[in-house]
Request: fold
Amino acid sequence: MQPIRLIRGFLSVGAWTLASRVVGFVRDVMIAAYLGTGPVAQAYIVAFTLPNMFRRFFAEGAFNTAFVPMFAKRLEAGDDPHGFAEEAFSGLAFVVLVVSVIANFAMPWLVLAQAAGFRGDERFDLAVVYGRICFPYILFISLTALLSGLLNAGGRFMAAAAAPVLMNFILIVAMLMADRFGWDMGLAMAWSTPVSGIAQLFCVWWAAKRMGFALRIRRPRLSPDMRRLLAIAAPAVLAGGVVQVNLLVGRQVGSFFDGAIAWLTNADRLYQLPLGVVGIAIGIVLLPDIARRLKAGDTDGGRHAYNRATEFALFLTVPAGVALMVAAYPLISVLFKRGAFMQADVGPTALALAIYGAGLPAFVLQKVLQPLYFAREDTRTPFRFALWSMVVNAVMALGLAPFIGFSAAALGTTIAGWTMAAQLWLGTRAFGEAAALDARLRHRLPRIVAASVVMGVAIWAMRLVLDPALETPSLRYLALTALVLGGIGAYGVAAVLLGAIRPSDLRAGLRRQR
Reply:
């Protein structure tokens, strides 16, 4: 994959991820408007998080980490990739089905593990009911994740990136229908969750069939290939468990502060927009690309792809992080304050968003750095790093909660994110020149930071002028649009003047394409 094709892959996945996140953001705004931060909203958030937590644990966080590089190399060498994929598909389906059955009986304990602060009030019973309805989603979405990895390894990014849009559309339709026909809003959202999983699975299975991989479920067996896959996946499973412990710590802290789970979740959704568009897109495209280059012995090409991915990621996410910190309050006020989401919810949610914004570049850097390890089938080293980040998160979140309240959960996540990114970067020294920063990246990185600071000052100055309009119902959307466009313009001008980007970059890319 030439550099221009790599960037095109980032943009293709990023565009669909942006569409999914925008529609998902509309979904979250609707949940906030219909339910606010009350018991039903908090119970549904915990219930919906459960299958997604296990999905990241089994499919995206572990199975795909091992599966994608192995499948990409088999695809490159023509070494029966179909048989390998079908064995992995069947094995994953069996494991996740067993987990689903067990989770149905263990749901009260799973809810308490997520939110012990729910014990003894109506949120607990609601979360158990919603959790049992939502949990089968894990089966469909885990198989969807594996098929998405297969498609990405084959250079087919569109269907896998577009599938999450279906989920958000289905949940939005469910809320609209519940409001129209007077259905129970919480139950409508819960039942629409597994339905959306079926829709996503069909979407990516059909795309895989068109690629020549119409996978079927067959009797799982522990073949030598599956033993190798499990050996590589095992540390990633443990690392996925560490990540989920980090999330659990934050949610447990939030559960002891009324409304905090909804505040943290709404802030999380907003900073996930740039994280999803840039970080996840790069991680999806970069892992199979580097795995293929290692198979072909193309060290220089792998280094160039890594450096351009890092440059692309930081060029977009450093200013995004600064913007989220400086403009957190108007963003939350304009986008969320309506219906049951009150003025009293704006400040705490904005505080959490500003803290998450400070960690955004670190979260994206993890997505860029991890493929360097995973492409080499090294899942043990990231696991060790994840353990340290877990300790940092727990100490910060639990230790500071009595002093600074619910925001300790967000602060722990951000500091742990930077700890993980720093460890991953220092660990790449073991790869030698294959992971070294080239002269172009070293030249542009400080200029990206400087341009982002200029943009932050510009946004702060614009807020002084636009604050009255941002609080006026008839003008607030126009004022927020002006603030966002003004920030983008300030960053673009500063980036060109300071040398963070050059107009010749695009022309050079087009010449390479020809």
Remarks:
- Residues 91 and 222 are 9 Å apart (CA to CA).
- The chain has 18 helices and no strands.
- Residues 39-77 form the longest helix (39 residues).
- The radius of gyration is 22 Å.
